[in-house]
Design goal:
By secondary structure, the chain is α/β, with parallel strands linked by helices. It has 11 helices and 11 strands. Helix 1 packs across helix 3, helix 2 runs parallel beside helix 3 and helix 2 packs antiparallel against helix 4. The protein is globular.
């Protein structure tokens, strides 16, 4: 979930209305375009990149979409997903490199070329905590998803919206509004969704593909993860834990854990949910994801540990043993809860 950021103070003046035409012009003049996103992509990161990829290919551009990690299982049906490159040639060069939903440059894959071979670096994002790492930063913290920005760029390019591109944008909106359930759902995204339907998107077909075709192994992993569910004294913080052993026993992979944290947040009385993911081989950092019902700004908590996100959905990585990491998070959440009720 990416919660709506209206009413949240943004220290940076992103000026999306001014930067949209700049983004359009950069892509209008580009012959070779690299589209990439944060590692371990979600539906918004992938859907927005694939949408732009569809439109630019239709316009005759040479397009590469790149991510070194596994794509989310429930978004692999999108047009162009089967063409996503896991590596790039060492001498690859582009006129424009577009990063969707990345948050920071260090979340991109290792093969993204350095300047000048990457060309103009265009950062497309809607995170309140994103870093201005692009040569151009088209960032709109009020957008429900980065797919909204992709939609506006395609409009600005004057290219007719194909059904393939429309499905990719719709998928990104579904991902970051929780199928139009989260607070990020606003009139703008609903109006755009209506236009996507007019371009051939079938809502039930998309819902089934994204939400209702879950691998059996994912359900077995969910059963194990829910066995770790804990509610802290006071009932306002709930946590789940995902270990390497669970993933190995169920024959799954980490992208199948998307959405598990929402079960913890759904408990009556819980205001903040946290998911702890055991470090992978070679790493010492626990991955911590947060979800909030709205009273606590979890992006502020995540930022204290070098992470970021939105008010209601954020994440970070913390080095240390499990007990120490849990204690630090519990203390930060307790302080935030106290301040929210002061």
């Amino acid at each position: 979930m990416k919660a709506k950021n209206r009413g949240v103070k943004n220290a940076r003046e992103w000026k999306p209305a001014e930067n949209l035409p700049r983004a359009v012009e950069a892509l209008r003049g580009a012959g070779r375009v690299l589209l990439t996103m944060h590692r371990g992509p979600d539906g918004d990161a992938l859907g927005s990149a694939l949408a732009l990829g569809c439109a630019l290919r239709e316009m005759g551009r040479e397009v590469t979409v790149y991510n070194p990690d596994e794509l989310p299982y429930n978004f692999r049906f999108l047009a162009g997903a089967d063409r996503v490159a896991k590596t790039l040639p060492a001498d690859a060069a582009y006129d424009v490199t577009v990063a969707t939903d990345a948050g920071s440059a260090d979340r991109l894959g290792p093969d993204v070329p350095p300047p000048p071979r990457r060309g103009v670096l265009l950062n497309l994002d809607h995170h309140i905590t994103t870093e201005p790492f692009g040569d151009l930063n088209y960032v709109d913290p009020e957008a429900a998803s980065v797919g909204i920005l992709a939609y506006k760029i395609i409009q600005g390019l004057g290219h007719p919206l194909s059904r393939d591109a429309a499905e990719c944008i719709y998928a990104s909106i579904l991902a970051d509004t929780g199928c139009f359930r989260y607070s990020s759902t606003d009139p703008e995204c609903l109006r755009i969704a209506a236009d996507l339907l007019e371009h051939g998107v079938e809502p039930w077909e998309m819902t089934v593909r994204v939400y209702e075709q879950q691998p059996l192994a994912r359900m077995k992993l969910l059963a194990e993860v829910l066995n770790t569910l804990e509610v802290a004294p006071g009932g306002k913080l709930a946590t789940i834990t995902i270990t390497r052993d669970m993933v190995a026993r169920t024959g799954t992979h980490l992208d199948l854990t998307d959405g598990f944290i929402n079960y913890a947040r759904s408990i009556d009385g819980v205001e903040v949910a946290a998911s702890f993911r055991e470090p992978e081989d070679g790493s010492q950092a626990w991955r911590v994801s947060f979800r909030s019902r709205g009273n606590v700004d979890v992006s502020a908590i995540a930022q204290r540990f070098g992470g970021g996100g939105h008010k209601n959905a954020a994440g970070c990585a913390i080095e240390g043993d499990e007990a120490a990491v849990r204690a630090r998070i519990a203390a930060e959440v307790a302080q935030a809860l106290e301040q929210s009720h002061a």
